[in-house]
Amino acid sequence: MRPNPVIKAGSSSKKRRLSKVITLEDDEDEDEDEDEDEDEVVKEEDEDFNM
Questions:
Q1: Which residues does the annotated region (Disordered) include (predicted)?
Q2: Which runs of consecutive H residues, i.e. helices, occur in 1-51?
Protein backbone atom coordinates (compact mmCIF):
# COMPACT_ATOMS: atom_id res chain seq x y z
CA MET A 1 0.00 0.00 0.00
CA ARG A 2 1.13 3.55 -0.68
CA PRO A 3 1.47 5.90 2.32
CA ASN A 4 -1.39 8.34 2.70
CA PRO A 5 -0.18 11.93 2.00
CA VAL A 6 -2.87 13.34 4.31
CA ILE A 7 -1.27 11.64 7.32
CA LYS A 8 2.14 13.12 6.44
CA ALA A 9 0.64 16.61 6.17
CA GLY A 10 -1.08 16.22 9.54
CA SER A 11 2.10 15.09 11.31
CA SER A 12 4.10 18.01 9.88
CA SER A 13 1.50 20.50 11.16
CA LYS A 14 1.75 18.88 14.61
CA LYS A 15 5.52 19.47 14.53
CA ARG A 16 4.91 23.15 13.74
CA ARG A 17 2.52 23.43 16.70
CA LEU A 18 5.08 21.82 19.00
CA SER A 19 7.78 24.27 17.89
CA LYS A 20 5.39 27.18 18.62
CA VAL A 21 4.68 25.83 22.13
CA ILE A 22 8.40 25.47 22.85
CA THR A 23 9.00 29.04 21.68
CA LEU A 24 6.25 30.37 23.97
CA GLU A 25 7.76 28.53 26.95
CA ASP A 26 11.14 30.16 26.26
CA ASP A 27 9.50 33.63 26.27
CA GLU A 28 7.91 33.31 29.75
CA ASP A 29 9.56 36.56 30.91
CA GLU A 30 7.91 38.50 28.07
CA ASP A 31 4.52 36.95 28.90
CA GLU A 32 4.81 38.19 32.51
CA ASP A 33 5.35 41.76 31.28
CA GLU A 34 2.24 41.48 29.09
CA ASP A 35 0.17 40.30 32.08
CA GLU A 36 1.11 43.46 33.98
CA ASP A 37 -0.10 45.61 31.10
CA GLU A 38 -3.42 43.73 31.06
CA ASP A 39 -3.94 44.49 34.77
CA GLU A 40 -3.53 48.21 34.07
CA VAL A 41 -6.18 48.07 31.34
CA VAL A 42 -8.64 46.36 33.69
CA LYS A 43 -8.20 49.14 36.28
CA GLU A 44 -8.99 51.78 33.65
CA GLU A 45 -12.14 49.92 32.60
CA ASP A 46 -13.30 49.71 36.24
CA GLU A 47 -12.94 53.49 36.63
CA ASP A 48 -15.06 54.13 33.54
CA PHE A 49 -17.72 51.73 34.82
CA ASN A 50 -17.95 53.49 38.21
CA MET A 51 -18.57 56.94 36.65
A1: 1-51
A2: 5-26, 28-50
